[in-house]
Write a structure and sequence with these properties.
single chain, 197 residues, mainly alpha, elongated
C-alpha cells in the first residue's frame, strides 16, 4: 500500500478520533453527530417516500397514455375521448401550484428545490461519481470523489450548495448564525435585568 495514502488515512482517522473524544467538547460534538445522523435518517426516509410517490405518478401517466393507445387499436372502437388534462410540467399551471402563477421555466438542477425524481438522479449520479473517484486513487479521483459526495449530499438533503457550505449566513438547518443568537440572548438578558430593577 502507498505510504502517503496510509499516512493520510491515519492522520484523518486520528483527527476524527481527537475531535470526537475531546474531553472538553467531545460530549457535545458526539451529541450533535448523533442528532445529525437521526435527522439524516428521517430525511432519507421522507425522501424515499416522496420519490416513490413522484415516480408512481409519472408511471401512471405513462400507463394511461399506453392504455388509451391500446383501446384505440381495438377493432370496433370508433373513438376514444380523453378528458384528462395532460401537463408536461407543473410549472405555469396555477391549479397545480396552490393557485398562484409561477415564474418562467428554469432547468431542474438550477432551481432552489429539486423534484424528488431529480434528487434521486442526482443522488445516484453523486454516489456513482464518489465510487469511481475512490477507485481511481489519484488526484483526479479525489476531486471526482469529493464532487460526487457533494452531489450526493445535495440530492439527499435538497439543500442548496451555498447553504451546505454555510456561505449564505444561515446554518444548514435554517437557523441564524451563532453570533445572531448570542446577540439576541445578550439583549434579552439586559432586558430581563432592567425589568427587575
Amino acid at each position: 500500500m502507498n505510504k502517503g495514502l496510509t499516512f493520510g488515512a491515519g492522520l484523518g482517522i486520528g483527527t476524527i478520533v481527537m475531535y470526537v473524544l475531546d474531553p472538553d467538547r467531545g460530549k457535545r460534538r458526539r451529541a450533535l453527530l448523533r442528532d445529525k445522523c437521526v435527522s439524516a435518517t428521517r430525511k432519507t426516509g421522507e425522501a424515499i417516500e416522496v420519490t416513490a410517490h413522484d415516480l408512481t405518478n409519472r408511471a401512471q401517466g405513462i400507463a394511461t397514455s399506453i392504455l388509451l393507445s391500446c383501446v384505440k387499436a381495438v377493432q370496433g372502437v370508433n373513438e376514444v375521448t380523453n378528458n384528462l388534462e395532460v401537463h408536461q410540467e407543473a410549472g405555469n399551471h396555477p391549479a397545480l401550484q396552490g393557485g398562484r402563477e409561477r415564474p418562467g421555466y428554469q432547468f431542474e438542477f438550477l432551481q432552489e428545490n429539486w423534484s424528488p425524481a431529480a434528487r434521486f438522479v442526482a443522488s445516484a449520479a453523486g454516489a456513482s461519481l464518489a465510487v469511481y473517484g475512490g477507485i481511481r486513487r489519484d488526484a483526479l479521483g479525489a476531486g471526482l470523489g469529493a464532487a460526487g459526495l457533494l452531489l450526493l449530499t445535495r440530492g439527499i438533503t435538497n439543500t442548496e450548495f451555498k447553504r451546505l457550505a454555510g456561505l449564505d449566513g444561515r446554518e444548514a438547518d435554517g437557523q441564524d448564525t451563532h453570533s445572531n443568537r448570542d446577540a439576541s440572548s445578550v439583549e434579552s438578558l439586559f432586558a430581563q435585568g432592567s425589568a427587575t430593577m
